[in-house]
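Mods, move this if it's the wrong board.
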Amino acid sequence: MLLDQIREKAGGGLDKLRLYSAVVTKKDRTLDLCFAFPEKLTEEQEELIKDVCVRSVGGKFTVNVRFIKDYFDKDTLKSSALNYIRQEFLFFSSKIDENGILTEETEDGFLITVTVTPELRRMLEQNRFIERVSEHFASISNYIIKVRFDVIENPVDVDNLMKQTELLRETQMTKALYKPQRKIDVTDVTEYIGRGIKERPQYIIDVIQPEKSVTLCGKVESIKETVTPNGYVIFKFDLTDFTGTIGVIMFSDEKIYIKLKELCVGDEVLLNGQVKENSFTHELEMTAYRVCKCKIAADDYDSKISRPVPENYVVVRPEPYIKNAQESLFGGGGVCERLKGKKYVVFDLETTGKTYITDKIIEVGAVSVVDGNITETFSTFVNPERRIPREITELTGITDAMVENAPTFPEIIADFYKFCDGASLVAHNIEFDGGFLKFNTKDSGYIFNHPQLDTLAISRKYYRSLHGGEETPRNFKLGTLAEFLGVSRDNAHRAVDDSLMAADVFIKLVEMGAEL
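Not the wrong board. C-alpha cells:
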C-alpha cells in the first residue's frame, strides 16, 4: 500500500498521513494524489512523499501530488458525507438531501446523523451503511467520526425505489462499460439518400444518450409508413446490429419517398442522423438524414496480425505451480506421449453474466501445461468498473471489494497474451470463455487466434463413441467430469481453481485416448 511505503521510508512522523483523494485521468495518463495531514508538512517530508509516489506508480502515469490540512467542520463534513453517500449508495441517493443529514461536533470528533424510514434503514443496514461510511472517513481523516440513524415513520414504495435504483445503476454501468470508440467495419458503401457517409459506424449499444450526430449501421427490420395530417409521410423501421436495436424515423418528400419505398427488410444500411429521446416511450430513437447502402464486413478477428509478444510481464506475473502432497502421492505413472513437446494454456474467466456484449470479466485464471505437466499459474481479479450482481457474488464468492483495486481487463491483456505465447488454448465450453476473450481483446492489438480445444466437446465425443457397458458420467459439467475421473478439486467457480480442474480433466482425457 502506498501509505505504508511512505511511512516506512519516513521512519516515523507520518503515522497520521491520509490519502484524501486519488484521481486518474486516462486521456492524459495522469494520477492526481491529495494527502491530508493535521499540520503543515516540512519540505523534506513533502519531497519524500512525492518521491515514493513517483517511484511506485510513475512508470504508468504522470504523478501530481498536493497536500491539504486535515480539517473538518460541520459544513464540510456534511458536504463530504453527501457526496460519498450519493456515489456509493445509489438506491439512497435520490432520497437524501442536506436536510436528511445532521452533523454536530462531539468531545472527541463529529457525529453524523442520517434521517431514514424503517424500510430504508433495513436496506442500508444490509449494505453495511454505518460501517462503510465510518471506514471511508477513517481512511481520509484523523478525526473520530461516528454515524447513526434517526428513524422516522414515513411509508416508502420500496419496489418503485428499487426499480429506480436499478435503472440508475444500469445507466451508470453502461456509461462506464461501453466506450464510443468501438467501431464496425463496412464495405461497398454507396450513396442512397443524401450525401455519402464517410464516418465508421459505432455499436448501437454504445448509444446511451441523445446526440446531434451519430453514425450507425445494421439490418432494416419492421418497416412502417405513417401519413401526418398535413400530408407528410413518415417512415419508421428498426435498425439492428449484433449488439442491439434502435428505432429509426425518416421524414420524406416526394423524391425521398420513392427511395424509402424501395427499402426492404434485411437490407444492410449505413445511417447518419440525430438521436433523441421519444417523449412518449422515453426510449432513444434516431432521426436519420442520410442513408447509404452497404455491406457489413464479416468478423476478421482471426485474420488480424497481432502485436509482438511483450518482453516482460508488467501487471500480472505467473507463479510456478507446486503440486501438493496428495497429488504427488496419487499422481500418474509418467507423462502421456501425446502431450510431450506441446504447450497448452487451460483458462477460465469469471464474469458478471453470460453475455459477452453486455457483461464484464471479473477474474482471469489460467494454467500452463507443458509436456503433460502443469508448470505455472496465472491469476488475477479484474475491475469491471461496475457493480457485481448479487447472484454472481453468491456463485463465485467474488465481491465488489475484492475487485475494487484490481487492474482493468485492458491493463492485463498484454500479460495474458505473453502467458499464452506458443500454446493452444483449452477451456471447458470454450465458446463462452473464448467469446469474452475475443470481444474484449479485438481492439487491443493482441489477437488470441491460437488453436483452441474444448474439454466439453472432447469429453462428449469420447464417451458417446464408446460401445458396450462402459460407465459414463451423468452429465458433462466440469465438476461432474472431474469427480467421475477422480481429479476433482476444491474452490469451484474461482477461475484459477476451475482452470486447474479443467487441466486435470484435459490431461486425463488425452491419457485415455480421447480425440482432440
